[in-house]
Amino acid sequence: GCRVTVVPSTATAAEILALSPDGIFLSNGPGDPAAVTHAIQTTRDLLGKKPLFGICLGHQILALALGGSTYKLKFGHRGLNQPVKDLATGRIEVTTQNHGFCVDVASLSGKCAMTHVHLNDGTCEGIEHREARAFSVQYHPEASAGPHDARYLFARFTDRIEGRW
User: Fold this and answer.
1) Count of CB atoms within 10 A of residue 122's CB?
2) Sequence-distant (≥ 6) Cβ neighbours of residue 79 within 8 angstroms
3) pLDDT tens digit at each of 165 positions of the chain
4) Angle at Cα 135 formed by Cα 14 and Cα 95, nearest 5°?
5) Which residue in 7, 17, 53, 105 could disulfide with 11, CB within 3.0 to 4.6 Å?
6) Considering Cα of 34, then 75, then 111, then 21, what sign does the dihedral take?
7) Are 128 and 113 in contact (CB under 8 A)?
8) pTM for this model (two decimals)
């Protein structure tokens, strides 16, 4: 039920906000998130202005915008059947992943909460900053590996857009 407007990764916060979006989605993408400095700054400038949901690279960009750091995994998370635990519910999700970098959860201590954890290696799979109305997951909820394990994340995003928590 959402209308999506895609903007280039180089769009500024002012350009994005000029479109009057109800919410902002940070999508996936390739590479080292620390190298995407323009997206980190744009995300920092958008924090708290609109509900924000990030996946994969968008998760890493959000963490960097919040003052955290990332690191390269020795072995990336690739493919289907990656087990992730939702720390709020205790529910285990079957996820699809394709990334070689990870959020250093210790670097976000006191800045936001970790919401999801990878059960194979204990790495951060999700974060939330409630005051900024921003959250993200490392995996690909749109891939439906479960096949519907992560559908609730999109409902969470639209609830925030509509002012429901």
Assistant:
1) 9
2) 96, 97, 98
3) 789 999 998 999 999 999 999 999 999 988 899 999 999 999 999 999 999 999 999 999 999 999 999 999 998 999 988 999 999 999 999 999 999 999 999 999 999 999 999 999 999 999 999 999 999 999 988 766 666 778 889 889 999 999 876
4) 125
5) 7
6) positive
7) yes
8) 0.94
Query: Which pairs with CB-CB distance under 8 Å and at least 24 residues apart come from 98-101?
Result: 98/56, 98/140, 99/56, 99/57, 99/60, 99/73, 99/138, 100/72, 100/73, 100/76, 101/32, 101/33, 101/60, 101/70, 101/71, 101/72, 101/73, 101/76
pLDDT at 145: 64
Using the 8-state DSSP alphabet, how is residue 70 labeled?
E
Q: In the prediction, which pLDDT does 157 show?
A: 93
Please give the positions annotated as active site: 56, 140, 142
Asked if 112 and 101 count as a contact pair (C-beta separation under 8 A), the reply is: no
Q: How far apart are CA 107 and CA 124, in angstroms?
A: 11
Neighbours of 93 (CB within 10 A): 24
* Residue 142, burial from CB neighbour count under 10 angstroms (0-12, 13-18, 19+): middle
How many Cβ atoms from other residues are within 10 Å of residue 56's Cβ?
26
